[in-house]
Design goal:
It is a single chain. The protein has 132 residues and is an all-alpha fold. The protein has one domain. The protein is 54% helix and 0% strand. The longest helix is centred in the last third of the chain and has 26 residues. The protein is built from 5 helices and no strands. Helix 2 packs across helix 4 and helix 4 packs antiparallel against helix 5.
Length: 132
């Protein structure tokens, strides 16, 4: 299996890695999926994007095998944007799968770097006249 992000997504889309007319379209959709994952807290802390077939999965997920679902998630996102299914049943199935992947990836991230969403209450401010 290739470690190239673009080549592996193209293979899943049914495109040969040497066929390049749609590379710009696929790259734009891949980068959109990376943006969504970045907002979920998945991947590098800085945003991540690709420009060609030299970017690798290991550059995004590192050595964490539990993040392999990212590959399927990005494929489905790209498929829905680049070559959407023609029936609503398949669209609904893909959307449900995307939601499940987002939930599972989010649970994994929270297990590693959970941040308390409760805001810290403001500290009471001492009136200026009480210091005299």
């Amino acid at each position: 299996m290739t470690d190239s992000i673009l080549d592996s997504i193209k293979k899943l889309l049914g495109l040969d890695s040497t066929y390049t007319p749609f590379d710009t379209d696929v790259i734009i959709h891949i980068n959109t999926a990376f943006f969504v994952l970045w907002q979920l807290g998945i991947g590098p802390t800085d945003s991540f994007s690709i420009e060609d077939n030299t970017a690798t999965w290991s550059a995004f997920v590192g050595t964490d095998l539990n993040l392999n679902a990212v590959k399927s998630y990005i494929f489905i996102r790209v498929k829905m944007l680049f070559d959407p299914p023609t029936t609503s049943f398949v669209i609904d199935a893909y959307n449900a799968q995307l939601k499940e992947y987002e939930w599972r990836l989010n649970v994994k991230r929270e297990g590693e770097s959970w941040t308390d969403p409760t805001p810290t209450p403001p500290q009471p401010v001492q009136p200026w006249w009480e210091g005299f």
